[in-house]
Amino acid sequence: MNYRHAFHAGNFADLVKHAALLRLLALMRQAAPALTVIDTHAGSGLYELAGEAARKSGEAEAGIGRLMREAEPPPAFAPLVDAVRRANPKGALKYYPGSPWLIAEGLRPADRYLACELNADEHRRLSELLRGRRGAEARLGDGFKLAAAGARPGALLVLIDPPFEKSDDYARAVETAAAVRRRNPQAVVAIWLPLKDLETFDAFLRDLEDAGAGPALIAETRLQPLDNPLKMNGCALAIVGAPAELDATLEAACRWVAETLGDGGEGRVWRLPGGDEFR
Protein backbone atom coordinates (compact mmCIF):
# COMPACT_ATOMS: atom_id res chain seq x y z
CA MET A 1 0.00 0.00 0.00
CA ASN A 2 1.31 3.44 -0.92
CA TYR A 3 0.15 6.17 1.43
CA ARG A 4 2.40 9.11 0.64
CA HIS A 5 1.01 12.30 2.13
CA ALA A 6 0.86 14.38 -1.05
CA PHE A 7 -1.40 11.93 -2.88
CA HIS A 8 -3.93 11.80 -0.06
CA ALA A 9 -3.68 15.22 1.62
CA GLY A 10 -7.08 16.47 2.67
CA ASN A 11 -8.85 13.16 2.15
CA PHE A 12 -11.48 11.65 4.47
CA ALA A 13 -8.81 10.14 6.75
CA ASP A 14 -7.08 13.49 7.21
CA LEU A 15 -10.38 15.02 8.32
CA VAL A 16 -10.70 12.52 11.16
CA LYS A 17 -7.02 12.52 12.06
CA HIS A 18 -6.63 16.29 12.16
CA ALA A 19 -9.91 16.94 13.98
CA ALA A 20 -8.62 14.55 16.66
CA LEU A 21 -5.16 16.15 16.67
CA LEU A 22 -6.45 19.69 17.15
CA ARG A 23 -8.77 18.64 19.95
CA LEU A 24 -5.96 16.68 21.63
CA LEU A 25 -3.61 19.65 21.40
CA ALA A 26 -6.22 21.95 22.92
CA LEU A 27 -6.90 19.58 25.82
CA MET A 28 -3.25 18.91 26.57
CA ARG A 29 -2.31 22.60 26.40
CA GLN A 30 -5.09 23.40 28.85
CA ALA A 31 -3.68 20.83 31.26
CA ALA A 32 0.05 21.69 31.08
CA PRO A 33 2.08 24.90 30.66
CA ALA A 34 4.61 23.09 28.47
CA LEU A 35 3.93 20.34 25.90
CA THR A 36 6.29 18.25 23.81
CA VAL A 37 4.99 16.78 20.54
CA ILE A 38 6.85 14.14 18.53
CA ASP A 39 5.62 13.39 15.00
CA THR A 40 7.12 10.14 13.66
CA HIS A 41 6.19 10.55 9.98
CA ALA A 42 5.69 14.26 9.51
CA GLY A 43 5.79 14.57 5.72
CA SER A 44 6.40 17.99 4.23
CA GLY A 45 3.70 19.71 6.29
CA LEU A 46 1.80 21.72 3.69
CA TYR A 47 0.32 20.37 0.47
CA GLU A 48 -0.68 22.12 -2.72
CA LEU A 49 -4.05 20.72 -3.72
CA ALA A 50 -3.57 21.85 -7.31
CA GLY A 51 -0.31 19.87 -7.49
CA GLU A 52 0.09 16.80 -9.66
CA ALA A 53 -0.10 14.28 -6.81
CA ALA A 54 -3.30 15.71 -5.30
CA ARG A 55 -4.99 16.13 -8.68
CA LYS A 56 -4.11 12.57 -9.63
CA SER A 57 -5.84 11.07 -6.62
CA GLY A 58 -8.77 13.52 -6.44
CA GLU A 59 -9.24 12.64 -2.78
CA ALA A 60 -9.02 16.18 -1.44
CA GLU A 61 -12.06 17.27 -3.43
CA ALA A 62 -14.12 14.50 -1.84
CA GLY A 63 -12.67 15.23 1.61
CA ILE A 64 -11.67 18.73 2.68
CA GLY A 65 -13.33 20.17 -0.43
CA ARG A 66 -16.66 18.69 0.62
CA LEU A 67 -16.24 19.82 4.23
CA MET A 68 -15.39 23.40 3.26
CA ARG A 69 -18.49 23.57 1.05
CA GLU A 70 -20.75 22.82 4.01
CA ALA A 71 -22.83 25.86 4.94
CA GLU A 72 -22.55 24.88 8.60
CA PRO A 73 -19.62 22.49 9.15
CA PRO A 74 -20.06 20.15 12.13
CA PRO A 75 -18.64 21.61 15.38
CA ALA A 76 -16.16 18.74 15.65
CA PHE A 77 -14.39 20.14 12.58
CA ALA A 78 -14.52 23.83 13.53
CA PRO A 79 -10.81 24.09 14.54
CA LEU A 80 -9.76 22.30 11.34
CA VAL A 81 -11.94 24.52 9.15
CA ASP A 82 -10.44 27.61 10.82
CA ALA A 83 -6.91 26.25 10.28
CA VAL A 84 -7.55 25.52 6.60
CA ARG A 85 -8.86 29.06 6.13
CA ARG A 86 -5.71 30.47 7.75
CA ALA A 87 -3.59 28.35 5.42
CA ASN A 88 -5.52 29.84 2.48
CA PRO A 89 -5.69 33.57 3.24
CA LYS A 90 -6.79 34.45 -0.30
CA GLY A 91 -9.93 32.39 0.09
CA ALA A 92 -9.57 29.69 -2.56
CA LEU A 93 -8.80 26.19 -1.30
CA LYS A 94 -5.25 25.86 -2.63
CA TYR A 95 -3.35 24.34 0.31
CA TYR A 96 -4.03 21.68 2.90
CA PRO A 97 -2.10 21.94 6.20
CA GLY A 98 -0.60 18.69 7.49
CA SER A 99 0.20 17.92 11.10
CA PRO A 100 3.47 19.94 11.17
CA TRP A 101 1.66 23.11 10.10
CA LEU A 102 -1.21 22.50 12.53
CA ILE A 103 1.13 21.81 15.45
CA ALA A 104 3.64 24.59 14.74
CA GLU A 105 0.90 27.22 14.41
CA GLY A 106 -0.08 26.74 18.04
CA LEU A 107 3.33 26.37 19.68
CA ARG A 108 3.72 28.33 22.91
CA PRO A 109 7.12 29.60 24.09
CA ALA A 110 7.62 26.59 26.38
CA ASP A 111 6.36 23.97 23.89
CA ARG A 112 8.63 21.76 21.81
CA TYR A 113 7.92 20.00 18.52
CA LEU A 114 10.09 17.31 16.93
CA ALA A 115 8.99 16.51 13.38
CA CYS A 116 10.65 13.35 12.02
CA GLU A 117 10.83 12.42 8.35
CA LEU A 118 12.82 9.66 6.64
CA ASN A 119 12.40 10.81 3.03
CA ALA A 120 15.09 13.37 2.17
CA ASP A 121 12.95 15.42 -0.23
CA GLU A 122 10.04 15.57 2.22
CA HIS A 123 12.46 16.49 5.00
CA ARG A 124 13.87 19.37 2.96
CA ARG A 125 10.39 20.84 2.44
CA LEU A 126 9.54 20.20 6.10
CA SER A 127 12.66 22.06 7.22
CA GLU A 128 11.69 25.03 5.07
CA LEU A 129 8.19 25.05 6.57
CA LEU A 130 9.47 25.00 10.16
CA ARG A 131 12.43 27.34 9.67
CA GLY A 132 12.26 30.24 12.11
CA ARG A 133 9.56 28.67 14.27
CA ARG A 134 10.76 28.70 17.85
CA GLY A 135 10.67 25.30 19.52
CA ALA A 136 10.18 23.35 16.27
CA GLU A 137 12.76 21.00 14.78
CA ALA A 138 12.66 18.92 11.60
CA ARG A 139 14.90 15.86 11.91
CA LEU A 140 15.87 13.45 9.15
CA GLY A 141 15.67 9.88 10.39
CA ASP A 142 13.61 6.87 11.47
CA GLY A 143 10.68 8.34 13.35
CA PHE A 144 9.95 5.15 15.26
CA LYS A 145 13.42 5.14 16.79
CA LEU A 146 13.51 8.89 17.35
CA ALA A 147 10.18 8.85 19.19
CA ALA A 148 11.18 6.00 21.48
CA ALA A 149 14.51 7.65 22.27
CA GLY A 150 13.05 11.15 22.64
CA ALA A 151 10.29 10.37 25.11
CA ARG A 152 10.92 12.35 28.28
CA PRO A 153 8.97 13.11 31.48
CA GLY A 154 6.30 15.79 31.29
CA ALA A 155 3.33 16.41 29.03
CA LEU A 156 4.05 14.47 25.85
CA LEU A 157 2.05 13.72 22.70
CA VAL A 158 3.45 11.27 20.15
CA LEU A 159 1.86 10.96 16.72
CA ILE A 160 2.55 7.73 14.80
CA ASP A 161 1.37 7.98 11.22
CA PRO A 162 3.46 5.74 8.94
CA PRO A 163 2.74 5.28 5.22
CA PHE A 164 2.18 1.52 5.69
CA GLU A 165 4.41 0.70 2.75
CA LYS A 166 6.38 -1.79 4.85
CA SER A 167 5.03 -4.99 6.30
CA ASP A 168 6.36 -4.22 9.78
CA ASP A 169 4.78 -0.75 10.13
CA TYR A 170 1.94 -2.15 12.25
CA ALA A 171 4.32 -3.98 14.58
CA ARG A 172 6.71 -1.04 14.86
CA ALA A 173 3.85 1.33 15.66
CA VAL A 174 2.81 -0.89 18.57
CA GLU A 175 6.40 -1.34 19.75
CA THR A 176 7.01 2.40 19.66
CA ALA A 177 3.84 3.16 21.61
CA ALA A 178 4.86 0.69 24.32
CA ALA A 179 8.43 2.05 24.43
CA VAL A 180 7.22 5.64 24.77
CA ARG A 181 4.84 4.72 27.58
CA ARG A 182 7.54 2.83 29.44
CA ARG A 183 9.65 5.98 29.42
CA ASN A 184 6.73 8.28 30.17
CA PRO A 185 3.61 6.56 31.56
CA GLN A 186 1.62 9.82 31.21
CA ALA A 187 2.36 10.20 27.49
CA VAL A 188 -0.48 10.23 24.99
CA VAL A 189 0.32 8.19 21.88
CA ALA A 190 -1.93 8.46 18.82
CA ILE A 191 -1.56 5.85 16.08
CA TRP A 192 -3.27 6.31 12.71
CA LEU A 193 -3.85 3.28 10.51
CA PRO A 194 -5.82 2.39 7.37
CA LEU A 195 -8.77 0.02 7.62
CA LYS A 196 -8.63 -2.58 4.88
CA ASP A 197 -9.82 -5.90 6.31
CA LEU A 198 -10.96 -7.10 9.71
CA GLU A 199 -8.16 -9.66 10.12
CA THR A 200 -5.42 -7.03 9.85
CA PHE A 201 -7.24 -4.60 12.12
CA ASP A 202 -8.01 -7.23 14.77
CA ALA A 203 -4.40 -8.43 14.76
CA PHE A 204 -3.20 -4.86 15.35
CA LEU A 205 -5.62 -4.41 18.26
CA ARG A 206 -4.54 -7.70 19.84
CA ASP A 207 -0.89 -6.70 19.53
CA LEU A 208 -1.58 -3.27 21.03
CA GLU A 209 -3.41 -4.76 24.00
CA ASP A 210 -0.72 -7.42 24.53
CA ALA A 211 2.06 -4.81 24.40
CA GLY A 212 0.81 -3.37 27.69
CA ALA A 213 1.05 0.26 26.63
CA GLY A 214 -2.14 1.05 28.51
CA PRO A 215 -5.86 1.55 27.76
CA ALA A 216 -6.58 3.06 24.36
CA LEU A 217 -9.39 4.98 22.73
CA ILE A 218 -10.26 3.33 19.39
CA ALA A 219 -11.99 5.44 16.75
CA GLU A 220 -13.17 3.70 13.59
CA THR A 221 -14.32 5.34 10.39
CA ARG A 222 -15.61 2.73 8.00
CA LEU A 223 -16.64 4.06 4.60
CA GLN A 224 -17.72 0.62 3.44
CA PRO A 225 -17.43 -3.00 4.65
CA LEU A 226 -13.91 -4.19 5.50
CA ASP A 227 -13.84 -6.98 2.95
CA ASN A 228 -11.11 -6.00 0.49
CA PRO A 229 -7.55 -6.12 1.86
CA LEU A 230 -6.25 -4.32 -1.23
CA LYS A 231 -8.44 -1.26 -0.70
CA MET A 232 -8.55 1.40 1.99
CA ASN A 233 -12.11 0.96 3.21
CA GLY A 234 -11.72 3.35 6.12
CA CYS A 235 -9.29 4.46 8.79
CA ALA A 236 -8.81 4.19 12.52
CA LEU A 237 -7.10 5.98 15.37
CA ALA A 238 -5.78 4.17 18.43
CA ILE A 239 -4.98 6.73 21.12
CA VAL A 240 -3.23 5.39 24.21
CA GLY A 241 -3.76 7.54 27.29
CA ALA A 242 -6.49 9.58 25.60
CA PRO A 243 -8.29 12.10 27.80
CA ALA A 244 -11.99 11.35 28.33
CA GLU A 245 -12.92 14.76 26.89
CA LEU A 246 -11.76 13.59 23.46
CA ASP A 247 -14.46 10.96 22.96
CA ALA A 248 -17.37 13.19 21.93
CA THR A 249 -15.41 15.18 19.34
CA LEU A 250 -13.89 12.08 17.81
CA GLU A 251 -17.14 10.16 17.68
CA ALA A 252 -18.88 13.07 15.96
CA ALA A 253 -16.05 13.40 13.42
CA CYS A 254 -16.00 9.66 12.63
CA ARG A 255 -19.75 9.47 12.18
CA TRP A 256 -19.99 12.52 9.95
CA VAL A 257 -17.21 11.32 7.67
CA ALA A 258 -18.52 7.75 7.49
CA GLU A 259 -22.14 8.71 6.90
CA THR A 260 -21.52 11.70 4.62
CA LEU A 261 -18.56 10.52 2.56
CA GLY A 262 -19.01 6.76 2.75
CA ASP A 263 -21.24 4.18 1.11
CA GLY A 264 -23.30 2.79 3.96
CA GLY A 265 -20.50 3.84 6.29
CA GLU A 266 -20.27 3.65 10.06
CA GLY A 267 -18.24 5.53 12.65
CA ARG A 268 -17.77 4.49 16.25
CA VAL A 269 -15.56 5.10 19.28
CA TRP A 270 -14.79 2.57 22.01
CA ARG A 271 -12.15 1.72 24.60
CA LEU A 272 -9.54 -1.06 24.43
CA PRO A 273 -8.27 -2.47 27.74
CA GLY A 274 -4.58 -2.01 28.37
CA GLY A 275 -3.45 -5.45 29.51
CA ASP A 276 -0.50 -5.56 31.89
CA GLU A 277 0.91 -2.07 31.62
CA PHE A 278 4.58 -1.31 30.94
CA ARG A 279 5.88 -4.87 31.08
Describe the SSE topology:
Elements: H1 5-8, H2 12-31, E1 36-39, E2 46-48, H3 52-57, H4 59-62, H5 64-68, H6 78-87, E3 95-97, H7 99-105, E4 112-117, H8 120-130, E5 136-140, H9 143-150, E6 156-160, H10 169-183, E7 188-195, H11 198-211, E8 216-222, E9 234-240, H12 247-261, E10 266-272
Helix pairs in contact: 2-12, 9-10, 10-11
What does this entry look like structurally?
Helix content is 43%, strand content 20%. By secondary structure, it is of the alpha/beta class. Strands 5-4-1-6-7-9-8-10 form an 8-stranded mixed sheet, with helices on both faces. The longest helix is centred in the N-terminal third of the chain and has 20 residues. The relative contact order is 0.17.
